[in-house]
Amino acid sequence: MVETCTACGVPLMVSRELNWEANGVISLTASPRNRMVFFESETIDHVFRGIEELIGVPIERIVIESRSRETRRYIERAFPPEVRRIIDGSESGLEGRMAKMSPEERETLLATMRAITGSIIDIAKNYGYGEQILSELWEQGADFPWRVQRVRNPYSVLFFVADNLGSVEAFEGIEMQARYEKTGEDTYRSEVFPGEHALELRERLKRRRYDFKPGDVHYERCPQCGIPMAVAGRKWDVEAGTIVDPGTGRRMAIFGPFSADAVFDDLESELGEAIPETVIEATRRYIRSAWNTENWNRDGLTFQQMIAVRGLGYLARFEGDRHGLEMLVQNACLHLPMVGTVQALVEMAYRVEASTCEWELADDGDLSIAVKVK
Fold first, then answer.
1. What is the chain's mean pLDDT, rounded?
2. For residue range 266-300, what is the model confidence (pLDDT) as tens digits?
3. Which site from 227, 298, 339, 365 is most exposed, i.e. has the minimal number of CB atoms within 10 Å?
4. What is the pTM of this model?
5. Dist. CA 167–CA 29, nearest whole Å
6. Could you tell me the pLDDT band of residue 209, with boundaries at 50, 70 and 90?
7. Where do runs of H (alpha helix) occur along the chain?
8. Residue 254 forms part of a structural domain
9. Which domain holds residue 352?
10. What is the CATH number of the domain that holds 291?
């Protein structure tokens, strides 16, 4: 059962494990150099589809593998080695071990893994990933029922598949592959099976690391759990696994940004230097089509709060005139979607159909953006 704050209704796991810092970073309490974002999740798959439409190349495989690595790292931190060793097949092979188990040993293993799978489902519900459901294999007495997962209203179909893949890999200790199918209205089934990753991705996907700079963002916080009230003000439906912004009706979720950044880096390595601008353009188009009914004539302080609450960084400079906007975001992540989002919001604020955008991401995490309206 998911525990929630009696004052604000946010799951206590969120307030215990995450810290909304004054520098625009949402850090992990147990690992402060690692971060999460609180982001409009509907953007994820729309941007990936937009990229595919613009370049004419499927990117699904790269997205799933990239995200699965972040999930695997998270699960390895969340569950200690002695727990994960229960089904670790990296040395002796789990299939062979299960074949030699007595009925009592098998029953104990399945009961333990069912409890662990339930814990992972609770994590997914806490973070807004949708209503994940135990597969039918548990009732059928299958050997590896944890390898199949079902979900209603996923925050991202591709990330759901990747999360299942990364979770199973974290416990079984061997490389896996994944496939999925749509089984109903916004309902999906994901299956994981042994198989090696694509070697070229294994060698290229890397994290971007830098030391976080300080900031002075102030949050009004829940007096009981400490979560920013701007976060608590979203509508949290824990059973359905959804977080909705009541002001916009948009779905939100908490997830690690490194996997998406790694996807974009790998696409650039594989498909060429035009990929960053393609990501920006795909994001710009989606934001304009999805958010165009809103009034985006916002000031610097509002933008600073918007960016910081989402964990995207610290807005250190914000200068605008009738020709456009210049801004500097420190501790930036998801920089390509952020550039596309800023460009779209500037166009909507200035009520223009097009603009030019220049940007630069420094090694220390400083993101400079300059948008000029036409």
1. 88
2. 778 777 888 999 999 999 999 999 886 565 556 66
3. 298
4. 0.88
5. 21
6. confident
7. 12-17, 42-55, 60-78, 81-84, 94-100, 103-126, 137-140, 157-172, 199-204, 229-232, 258-271, 275-291, 300-309, 335-350
8. no
9. 273-373
10. 3.30.1380.20
